[in-house]
TrEMBL record:
PROSITE patterns (alphabetical): EPSP_SYNTHASE_1, EPSP_SYNTHASE_2
Name of the protein in its database record: 3-phosphoshikimate 1-carboxyvinyltransferase
Domain of life: Bacteria
Protein's gene: aroA
Family: Belongs to the EPSP synthase family.
Lineage of origin: Bacteria, Bacillati, Bacillota, Bacilli, Bacillales
Amino acid sequence: MAARRLDKSISGLTGSVKVPGDKSISHRSVMFGAIAKGTTSVTNFLLGDDCLSTIACFRKLGVSIEQKGNQLQIVGNSFDGLKEPADVLDVGNSGTTIRLLLGVLAGRPFHATLIGDESIGRRPMTRVAKPLAMMGADIDGRCGGEFTPLSIRGGNLTGIDYHLPVASAQVKSSILLAGLQAEGITTVVEPSKTRDHTERMIRQFGGEVEESGLTVRIKGGQSLTASKVEVPGDISSAAFFLAAAAITPNSELLLKDVGLNPTRTGMIDVLKEMGADITVMPHDTEGYEPSGDIIIKTSNLKGVEIKGDILPRLIDEIPIIALVATQAEGTTVIKDAHELKVKETNRIDTVVGELAKLGASIEATDDGMIIHGKSHLKGGIVSSHGDHRIGMMLAVAALICKDEVFLERDEAISVSYPGFFKDLYSVMK
Ligand code: S3P
């Protein structure tokens, strides 16, 4: 496939962008709509490839899902309404789909086979298979159950007390979805707080979940009731525009209706610490998920250290933060980010490799990276490596490169942001 030539003849970014719906919340809206009783309606659903994979999987499980533009109507009939699929369930590129789906299927009395693309085939699944097996599910797969293809036969589940070895919302959510079907209480303790969209959605659908500090507790056998889900804009998509405006001269952007769940806003905190000219205006009417508008302008930035408990709050934003750091005075050190190695690509290697090609001063460490700013980026041929967030980061990098940039495998961007280039071109002046 031909590489995309990225436009760089701009004098700045101006105007407003309404980024598409949040990916994590969109996935969960389909899943909760399917396991609740009644008709759930969803607005501003993300029509990215990952969320479309979730729809396709739940249709194969017998759930009626009607889609008109970015609105969905899901007819749920509780966990018992799910049927044994006649075909394999293909999750495509989506880690959230496969890991949360395993939690749903863990308590279903039937067999299913789950497959995905080449990237999914490299991502660790024992982190969910192990606790689900402790609860009573029968899961197997390639390399002792670590990789797809996976097969699962659900069983009668019993609640467990589980300390997560890694901070992962996908693993926590999978266990909570199994816990809803288990006998007794299921307790999950996280090493650091991760995104809490699942907990919020359980409440939105009439269920109860107890949270105290890093402990989440759920009682099995609860029934959920259909709801109306309004998906806020994805802060992880807005992140590319926040970064673009901060590092491109003569820029000012307004990002509208962005999700501001505090478990996701780590990048805003980091941008403020770097000295960015950013104003966050939360909306007054907050439902289950807070949202608001953000204004950001070209900024003089300085390097920072990013480590510890903030990591889960910005884990998906590390690629774009690394680019921002190339334009900050001084050194930025990113630590405690081992999880980057098991994302859609090994994001330590892909970020460092691609930004180095453009002339950044960046080095990989065992648990993150070190970036020395400020560098003058040149141009060249770079690749997304099939990773949507690497592709968007490189497209933003092109805005400040001296020479032309060609992006290979740009099609990966449709995983989370199908209209990305249209939105980006609309604010280039
Ligand atoms: C997600 C959790 C995170 C994140 C992913 C979406 C979710 O993954 O990186 O993009 O929706 O729960 P981990 O749970 O593996 O950290």
